[in-house]
Amino acid sequence: MPTSPPRSLSRLIVLLGLPALPVGLIAADVPAPRDPARIVTLLCANCHGSTLTGGAGPSLVDSYWNHGNTSENIARSIRSGWPLSRMPPFGRTLSEAEIDRLVAYIHHQGEEFALGNIKIPPPPPDQTITSEKATFRLES
Ligand code: HEC
Fold first, then answer.
1. Which of 35, 42, 110, 112 has the CB geometry, 3.0–4.6 Å to 117, for a possible disulfide?
2. DSSP 3-state assignment of 129?
3. Is domain 36-137 annotated with CATH 1.20.1290.10?
4. How far apart are CA 67 and CA 82, in angstroms?
5. How many Å lie between the centroid of ligand 1 and the Cα of residue 2?
């Protein structure tokens, strides 16, 4: 049975339209990755400090790592978080490209810290510090 002209026409439109669609979606849906330093200020500095030397969350520039410091380890920490120890997951907030750039930024900050180019800021006066073994107050 021959296909009626309108139907083949709509099929033609579907065939022509389909390949164009994903291209359009990719262009519209994936914005350019945001600058990692900006992401740190917005999303990480509260806990890890503005230069990532630590705060409520651990330092990300020294050589102590709870969950490993390969690029994949760090990306995993950022993507999935460590909810039991209050590290939030960012896999829905950040694109994979942003996580990749953030990982590179963290490696870079670590190198700068090792070279002595990043100093640990002094704690604010009167801050009570609790460590595993002691609680103490700094007085200046
Ligand atoms: C609400 C506080 C908080 C925020 C915000 C936060 N973190 Fe964390 N983060 C933590 C805590 C607490 C840990 C320690 C988790 C652990 O060791 O189990 C941690 C651990 C990590 C680790 C693993 C460190 C290690 O020793 O293996 C990485 C990497 C990390 N955070 C990156 C980030 C990045 C990047 C951001 C911003 C996108 C961020 N975090 C935002 C609290 C936070």
1. 112
2. strand
3. no
4. 9
5. 64
Residues 93-132 pLDDT 10s: 999 999 999 999 999 999 999 999 999 888 777 767 677 7
Q: How far is CA 127 from the centre of its chain?
A: 29
Q: What is the pLDDT of residue 87?
A: 97
Through-space distance between the first and last CA atoms of the chain, rounded to whole angstroms: 93
- Ligand 1 atom closest to Cα of 68? 27
Query: 39-77, pLDDT tens digit by residue?
Result: 999 999 999 999 999 999 999 999 999 999 999 999 999
Angstrom distance (rounded) from CA 28 to CA 134:
53
Instruction: Single out the residue of 51, 53, 79, 85 nearest to residue 66, CA to CA.
Output: 85
Which two structure tokens, joined as six digits, stand for 126?
A: 């009167």
Taking the centre of ligand 1 as the mean of its atom positions, its distance from the CA of residue 16, in whole angstroms, is 47
